[in-house]
């Protein structure tokens, strides 16, 4: 028997105040437990808007979405410890140290005391941050900030992890480290929703992808199967361009 989806949306729509066009135009989406799901699309396609609705940062204009079986229409609060968010923009406090940022976000997710400090130390060691423990975030490199940003979203071991461009602007070594850790998390049962502009990332990591453009889902399926179905495409990057065009987006 197929398990119930962790996320299920029905005709989900979003129009921002003052905008003449909807950011989401009737999204229907089902994401199963333990999936590694890629949400692919050009800039301003609706990816971040959809992630923001899922994690409760913004509300939908109409339609419905069920998360862990609970409808957002019922205003049922989703336990924050079940969801982790790693945003595209660095969301850290510049006047706090690396360790203090990790502790702060761990406490936000309900972790406390010695177990929190132990987990913080374990993650800093895993991501080669121990020597930067007492460094102010404002004085850290972009790569260090990316690692801390990731740790703050996964420290509490969420059942559902949302990642918005987590490898943006990082070098190959850090990208590989992040890949390996996300694969490990997924194999342990964490459901991951992942946005990226690097199509090779999606090919390597995702069991299923959804292409979204102008607020609408235009194609969905297993990456290898989608490419194989298009004779003119050799990889997901070519398919992406065929679907969304070559025009630059803001």
How would you explain this protein's 3D organization?
With 250 residues, the chain is α/β, with parallel strands linked by helices. It has one domain: Rossmann fold, CATH 3.40.50. 34% of the residues lie in helices and 22% in strands. Strands 6-7-8-3-9-10 form a six-stranded mixed sheet, sandwiched between helices. α2 packs across α3 and α2 runs parallel beside α4. It is globular. The model has no long low-confidence stretch (mean pLDDT 91).
For the record, what CATH class applies? Alpha Beta
Number of strands: 10
Distance between the termini: 44 Å
Structural class: alpha/beta
SSE order in H/E notation?
EEEHEEEHHHEHEHEEHH
Unreliable sequence segments: none
Q: Report the β-strand fraction as a percent range.
A: 15-25%
Overall geometry comes to: globular
Query: What's the pLDDT, averaged over the residues?
Result: 91
User: Mind telling me which CATH architecture this is?
Assistant: 3-Layer(aba) Sandwich
Query: What strand order characterises the main sheet?
Result: 6-7-8-3-9-10
- The percent range for helix content is 25-40%
Task: Summarize the biggest pleated sheet.
Answer: 6 strands, mixed
CATH topology: Rossmann fold
Instruction: Please give the count of helices.
Output: 8
Overall number of structural domains? 1
Structural Rg? 18 Å
Task: Give the oligomeric state.
Answer: single chain
Name the CATH homologous superfamily: P-loop containing nucleotide triphosphate hydrolases
């Amino acid at each position: 028997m197929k398990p119930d989806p962790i996320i299920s949306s029905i005709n989900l729509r979003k129009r921002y105040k003052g905008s003449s066009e909807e950011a989401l135009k009737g999204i229907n989406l089902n994401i199963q437990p333990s999936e590694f799901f890629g949400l692919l699309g050009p800039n301003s396609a609706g990816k971040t808007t959809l992630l923001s609705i899922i994690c409760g940062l913004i509300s939908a204009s109409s339609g419905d979405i069920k998360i862990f079986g609970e409808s957002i229409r019922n205003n049922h609060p989703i336990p924050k410890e079940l969801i982790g968010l790693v945003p595209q923009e660095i969301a850290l406090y510049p006047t706090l140290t690396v360790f203090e940022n990790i502790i702060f976000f761990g406490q936000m997710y309900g972790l406390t005391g010695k177990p929190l400090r132990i987990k913080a130390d374990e993650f800093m060691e895993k991501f080669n941050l121990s020597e930067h423990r007492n460094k102010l975030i404002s004085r850290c490199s972009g790569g260090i900030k990316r690692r801390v940003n990731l740790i703050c979203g996964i420290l509490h071991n969420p059942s559902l992890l949302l990642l918005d461009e987590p490898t943006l602007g990082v070098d190959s070594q850090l990208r590989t480290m992040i890949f390996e850790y996300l694969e490990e998390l997924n194999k342990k049962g964490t459901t991951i929703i992942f946005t990226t502009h690097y199509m090779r990332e999606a090919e390597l990591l995702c069991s299923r992808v959804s292409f979204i453009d102008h607020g609408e889902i235009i194609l969905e399926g297993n990456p290898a199967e989608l490419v194989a179905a298009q004779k003119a495409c050799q990889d997901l990057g070519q398919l992406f361009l065929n679907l969304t065009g070559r025009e630059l987006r803001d």
